[in-house]
């Protein structure tokens, strides 16, 4: 037994331990590279992959978190809750500041602390946003390179469209002309059927076609309507930037090194003698010791919407008054760093249903659960290949909504939705029986928050304020979203299926509905805008449209923090294309 045990350990350590992912800084060949990428997350690994296509470039990725190898809760889609239900070793374990819009609740704010970043623990929903969203970025930055037509090829470049795990006929469930089968990161339709629920959703698009039309593919740039869910899953397994962009054939490149357990504290050796500010390298902590990695060409910050502004501020880049007050010498006064933080609030509505084709039939029955897990282990099929969401409805507020008397329309254009209603047979808090649930999302919040510092210690967590539900139109949109969700299930097809709402929200007073929302809403964890990209000559913002930090040279930001306004979508697809275009901008400078 002892022998078997140690043999297994040996295989586990040696088997997947690809040569170029280092756990210990002393194993690195050196600490000077052309490019140092801070954060091996969703965008960072895209950049690492693309830059090392050129054998002349050497790249070091510094990732604070742990290895993703063999992390079963990350690999098996159905087990994602295990990563998100409290502090764990794959998490930064952040908590928000008291949220005024949520009756002063403080809530956990998940951020991944694992190679692959948030792509390794997120909900895997794959949504690109609307054409309007990207055209608005192009208009705001004055760079047509951010428009939908120019970004669309990058969506194809990242995407490896993959058959679903059950290999069902997907005709009529997506539009193949807007997808690519030869990109890197797997995307697929659901691989386990929920026949009754699936039927009822599609039937609703026939019974209520005005309000809920069918949309063959909401990732085409035209999002409105109801379509089949697409997820970053391939072959029944989660696809992350680590499993895809750092797959064995890439990580074996001689010029690509990744160091884990390396938490960057700040940029060091500022030099202001020329027009622009430069930094010589980055300081990082591993174990008890501080080290410095030097970048001869560029330092690329890909630490995400919390990590990136945190590192900038500890480096003296931010609001100079606020930094000086904390005893951090100001190097560059850039007051937008960490400001305009935006996230989407989510509220849930559930209904008990007269059906056993539900996720709770699996999670509340250990025999069934074990069978399903064993099936996944055997063949990567069965209910564990997904999370139990099936479709998304994207809807607009009515054009004559009274809220528009006093609030301007926050959507990017007339074809962009204000509200997302994602639906499935899982996710409802219903211990008593079987249930379906909807997640209602305010897609374009006008509320803003911030990421700021509580001290000058770079290893203290920053103060995270996603600023949820502070404006009239945000709470109005949440209320309207709940009403739309209830309208959806008023289609006749649901009559014999739905037994009762879990919380009767339909006839509540506005005040009571607001209380429900403020007491139950959670953050979408789609934070962005904390290192906003603006036009070259803008009076605010953190990076120029080429992603170089304003008034500096040799420091770029390539992650979701640069997106200035929320897309009408979940945000991982945006993080992937920011990585792709960002890498091309770097290559254009140095090749
Ligand atoms: C719980 C949750 C669920 C989500 N669900 C979905 C979903 O279903 N669909 C979707 O599209 N989007 C979803 N998102 C959002 C999406 O995953 C993120 O917007 C996106 O992955 C962000 O990518 P990024 O590269 O900007 O940052 P990240 O992927 O977070 O990468 C940042 C990396 O930098 C590392 N890092 C940070 N600071 C340091 C430092 N000082 N030194 C070294 N390394 C550092 C981090 O450990 C991390 O690996 C979800 C997010 C969360 C948190
Ligand atoms: C790498 O450098 C060599 C020598 O300078 C040059 O000939 C070659 O074109 C470069 N390769 C690429 C892909 O840039
Ligand atoms: C988060 O909490 C877990 C459990 O307490 C801990 O093991 C882990 O180290 C924490 N993460 C960080 C980044 O400190
Ligand atoms: C939330 O906190 C603020 C500031 O402390 C306070 O003014 C407000 O009354 C609080 N709101 C609730 C609902 O407790
Ligand atoms: C600062 O930059 C200037 C101009 O690029 C260079 O001459 C000088 O050596 C640098 N100083 C330091 C301390 O690196
Ligand atoms: C926040 O964004 C708005 C535009 O949406 C801009 O006018 C303002 O200057 C920004 N604030 C900061 C501190 O960057
Ligand atoms: C559930 O459906 C069955 C028929 O399919 C019916 O006999 C039963 O009364 C229904 N139960 C409820 C609670 O509606
Ligand atoms: C639990 O699951 C097993 C295996 O699928 C099934 O035989 C059994 O009927 C289920 N029990 C209940 C209470 O549904
Ligand atoms: C699945 O496989 C893993 C390891 O490969 C094992 O630890 C686990 O017990 C298996 N689970 C089931 C339900 O078969
Ligand atoms: C708009 O603002 C005006 C002035 O404050 C107010 O009288 C009116 O009720 C508001 N309209 C709506 C729909 O809230
Ligand atoms: C809500 O009110 C409508 C009419 O105002 C009524 O027909 C319906 O039964 C009520 N629904 C609930 C769940 O109370
Ligand atoms: C900034 O540049 C844009 C185009 O790049 C131009 O339209 C605008 O007028 C400029 N604004 C200022 C204040 O110079």
Automatic annotation (TrEMBL):
<protein>
    <submittedName>
        <fullName>Pyranose dehydrogenase</fullName>
    </submittedName>
</protein>
<feature type="binding site">
    <location>
        <begin position="122"/>
        <end position="125"/>
    </location>
    <ligand>
        <name>FAD</name>
    </ligand>
</feature>
<feature type="binding site">
    <location>
        <position position="264"/>
    </location>
    <ligand>
        <name>FAD</name>
    </ligand>
</feature>
<dbReference type="Pfam" id="PF05199">
    <property type="entry name" value="GMC_oxred_C"/>
</dbReference>
<dbReference type="InterPro" id="IPR012132">
    <property type="entry name" value="GMC_OxRdtase"/>
</dbReference>
<feature type="active site" description="Proton donor">
    <location>
        <position position="526"/>
    </location>
</feature>
<comment type="similarity">
    <text>Belongs to the GMC oxidoreductase family.</text>
</comment>
<dbReference type="GO" id="GO:0016614">
    <property type="term" value="F:oxidoreductase activity, acting on CH-OH group of donors"/>
</dbReference>
<dbReference type="InterPro" id="IPR000172">
    <property type="entry name" value="GMC_OxRdtase_N"/>
</dbReference>
<feature type="active site" description="Proton acceptor">
    <location>
        <position position="570"/>
    </location>
</feature>
<dbReference type="InterPro" id="IPR007867">
    <property type="entry name" value="GMC_OxRtase_C"/>
</dbReference>
<keyword id="KW-0274">FAD</keyword>
<dbReference type="Pfam" id="PF00732">
    <property type="entry name" value="GMC_oxred_N"/>
</dbReference>
<feature type="signal peptide">
    <location>
        <begin position="1"/>
        <end position="19"/>
    </location>
</feature>
<feature type="binding site">
    <location>
        <begin position="42"/>
        <end position="43"/>
    </location>
    <ligand>
        <name>FAD</name>
    </ligand>
</feature>
<feature type="domain" description="Glucose-methanol-choline oxidoreductase N-terminal">
    <location>
        <begin position="304"/>
        <end position="318"/>
    </location>
</feature>
<keyword id="KW-0285">Flavoprotein</keyword>
<keyword id="KW-0732">Signal</keyword>
<dbReference type="GO" id="GO:0050660">
    <property type="term" value="F:flavin adenine dinucleotide binding"/>
</dbReference>
<dbReference type="InterPro" id="IPR036188">
    <property type="entry name" value="FAD/NAD-bd_sf"/>
</dbReference>
